Amino acid sequence: TVMIVTDLVRAFLVAMMAIPGAPFLALCGLLVAVQLAASPINAARAATLPAIFTADGAAEPDDRYVVASSVSNMSYQLAQLAGFAIGGLPVAIHPSVALLLDAGTFVASAALIYFGVRPRSAPAAKDGETSRWLRRISAGATLVWRDRRLILLVVRAAWAAVAMQTVRVTVGTRVRAWPSRTRGRGSPRAKRTSRPLSMTAF
Fold first, then answer.
1. To 5 degrees, how large is the angle CA 86–CA 37–CA 29?
2. Is 90 in contact with 98 (CB distance < 8 Å)?
3. DSSP classification of residue 23
């Protein structure tokens, strides 16, 4: 239920971004809301995957879980590459078309989850589970910060994330300014096109 509702909410938010003439700040707010809505579905997916490969009465998932997790990660990366490769086609038609297609992918995802995933109840919390979880987090953080190699990996990952966001903001800003230079600075048509185009770039 969480994954279906979240996908439908994101589909609605992205479809709202495709409305011509929407204020740029409103588009930025919608984009932030889309990103925030990704957290519940990521958590639900992470909890559902081991549940699928855990036999009734078993405490841990079987060996298929490792393979399934790897396939899931590979599929995610391949989907991103495919999006980069073919995403320019709908943008060339009109940025709003690209955003509406993006909204459609969320609807398709919700449909696949509804028809393809059997509902599962959340696992019951065990006594002391919260305290054990906090101890695991603390132990993991201590392990990382005591090893310079692991710290270097964390710094590199953080730097890569910052660099990626910087590229997105830079591209989005330049794309937003592009119609003004090509179709007449400050024209209404340029503004209507630049706003959804910049959201597509983000």
1. 85
2. yes
3. -
